[in-house]
């Protein structure tokens, strides 16, 4: 997870974390999520929960600023390739949660994934 830094945003100082822009074709603007940063699962329904951001402002796949807040629904991606080494990004939808995990004091936001059909994570090719 990249470090956050002070950032002047809409007339106030906040923290910003640069996320990955994508040269891969996506279905819409999405925020990068490192699918290797799984924190755990929701004990109620088994939904995956990921470490998401150290900053309150991140950029989406097009470079636009996005200010995170509790309960915000976001679309995320991670770059991936299919078995023939063609770009086929991993996609998911989720809800932003504040992070109060003592083990990760620098992390401000978690992301709890929502099901898309029967799965939490799907590929762009699944939409075609």
Task: Please tell me about this protein's structure.
The structure is a single chain. The chain is mainly beta. Helices cover 0% and strands 41% of the residues. It is built from no helices and 11 strands. A hairpin with a 6-residue loop joins strand 4 and strand 5.
Throw out a few tags for this protein.
single chain, 4-stranded mixed sheet, mainly beta
Helix content: under 10%
Radius of gyration: 15 Å
Secondary-structure content class: mainly beta
Unreliable spans are: none
How far is it from the N-terminal to the C-terminal residue, by CA? 31 Å
Mean pLDDT score: 92
What is the number of beta strands?
11
Anisotropy-based shape: globular
Brief write-up:
With 128 residues, this protein is mainly β. It has strands at 5-9, 12-17, 31-32, 38-41, 48-53, 57-59, 65-67, 73-78, 90-98, 109-114, 122-123.
Topology diagram in text:
Elements: E1 5-9, E2 12-17, E3 31-32, E4 38-41, E5 48-53, E6 57-59, E7 65-67, E8 73-78, E9 90-98, E10 109-114, E11 122-123
Parallel strand pairs: 2-6, 3-8
Antiparallel strand pairs: 1-2, 4-5, 5-10, 6-7, 8-9, 9-10, 9-11
